Amino acid sequence: MAEQQPTTANRERNFRYRASFRKTGGMKSLTHLELTKTLRHGFGEAEIPLSTGGGAHPQPQISFGPALPLNVESKEEFLDFFTYRFVSPEKFVSSINRFLPEDLAFLRATQISKITLSLSHMIDGSDYSVDFAGRCPDREVHFSAIEEFHREPEILFTKHKNEKVVNIKEYVRSLRFDPHQKRLWIEMKIVEGSTVGIHQVVRALYPAQEELQITRERMYLWQDGRKRSPLTLEWEELQIRKHLMDLTM
């Protein structure tokens, strides 16, 4: 039987974790709501002692990084969660994966401090790949599409939710086609919490192409020209501070 929630007075003892997971194959068609329900079910079956927030209808304290577009696979998504007792990150991964579909699995987890920035405030970049194997074999088609994209001063797109008109080019850091892998690599930017969908970028490059296989390869914090993982960032910064302290001793 799952453990009872702690009293309100003990909620400050919560433990905070950050974890990465993949969403591939048949799972790519899950909506964000369906994904949330599936993961919550996995947490429950694995008896992970999730903390809940306050209010009339307390919800498990789980928060996600930037949403994954529908029908896009991902090799690395992130979420944060709180528990009301300690669970080793390794045990969390091995336990919950037994109750999740094969194409939805956790990769790594780590404990983080309560003051660490949320994923939505930290992540500002994503890398995608578009698979052209068996399609559009002429490499010049891809090089021409990229050249045309860069030549245009603006490529405008109207967001459906708020009718805001944005320039797609402002959210694309780089484009590269690999003729050996037959893949287009796209580096995307998140600017002040806003971006455009990867499908809009692909349509801007290839207006006549049917739906293509798109994969989110990774998400990261872009810092000083480096891609830093939100999963290891806190640990890396602690090591740097420790190193600096050692040098001054």
Count of DSSP helices?
6
Helix-strand category: alpha+beta
One letter per element, helices H and strands E, the order comes to: EHEEHEHEHEEEEHEEH
Our estimate of the beta-strand percent is 25-35%
How does the major sheet shape up?
A: 9 strands, mixed
CATH superfamily of the largest domain: Pseudouridine synthase I, catalytic domain, N-terminal subdomain
Q: What is the 3D shape? A: elongated
Question: Which CATH first-tier class of the largest domain would you pick?
Answer: Alpha Beta
Explain this structure.
The chain has about 250 residues and is of the alpha+beta class. The protein has 2 domains: about 15-120, Pseudouridine synthase I, catalytic domain, N-terminal subdomain (Alpha-Beta Plaits); about 125-225, Alpha-Beta Plaits. The chain is about 25% helix and about 30% strand. It has helices spanning about 30-45, 90-95, 120, 140-150, 200-205, 235-249; strands spanning about 15-25, 60-65, 75-85, 105-110, 125-130, 155-160, 165, 170-180, 185-190, 215-225, 225-230. Strand 8 and strand 9 (about 185-190) form a beta hairpin. It is elongated, with a radius of gyration of 21 Å.
